[in-house]
Amino acid sequence: MEEDIQIRKAVEADLDDIAKLYEEICDYLEAHRNYPRWNKDIYPTRHDAGKGITANTLYIAKMGQKTIGTVILNHQPEEGYRNGKWLTRDDYDHICVIHTLAVHPGFLKRGIGFRLLQFAERMAREEQCISIRLDVVKDNIPAEQLYRKCGYQLAGTVSLGYEAYGIPWFRLYEKIL
Predict the structure, then answer these.
(1) pLDDT value of residue 90
(2) Secondary structure of 53-100 in the HEC alphabet?
(3) Predicted confidence (pLDDT) per residue in 22-54, tens digit
(4) Antiparallel, parallel or unpaired: β 153-158 and 131-137
(5) Which residues, 6 or more positions from 95, have their beta carbon under 8 angstroms from its beta carbon?
């Protein structure tokens, strides 16, 4: 039986739950292999969630009253995206960019990330986008496997300017819609 998961735009009233989700994810990553290299109080934070809510680009996945995932969807690439070997050539008005795809540690391996990616694809199609792009820390094996399984293709390995945080390389992925 498929679990009842609702994905919707986040609102100000969701901010506490999202901040708690990010903290729980960072606590989990601190105790396990930290593939995405996220760190509590650095990224992702309550402030990042607040910016996503203000910009109207943050979406949350809920199961009942529990916030179990988030994703930010916008048209704002990282500066380093200009160095990618992208599959499409277009301005970012017609390209959706995924940021901060997050799943609660208690809900890993239950298809939540897959559902968030399906949702992103549906939203991008509604906006008449030609593709979806994202970046992932190099060697974030679980995320890269998910993206490839969902039809994303590698578009290069680049610096996004996070060397000061010990994260020199990111892989760029794109899915043509």
Answers:
(1) 80
(2) HHCCCEEEEEECCEEEEEEEEECCCCHHHHHCCCCCCCCHHHEEEEEE
(3) 999 999 999 999 999 999 999 999 999 999 999
(4) unpaired
(5) 75, 77, 88, 129, 130, 131, 132, 133
- Of 30, 12, 104, the C-alpha closest to 64 is 104
Query: pLDDT digit string (tens) for 120-160?
Result: 999 999 999 999 999 999 999 999 999 999 999 999 999 99
Backbone angles phi and psi of 60, in degrees to 5: -125, 150
Within a 10 A sphere around the Cβ of 26, how many other Cβ atoms?
22
Contacts 24+ apart (CB under 8 A), 48-56: 48/22, 48/100, 49/10, 49/15, 49/18, 49/19, 49/22, 50/15, 52/10, 52/100, 53/10, 53/11, 53/12, 53/14, 53/15, 56/9
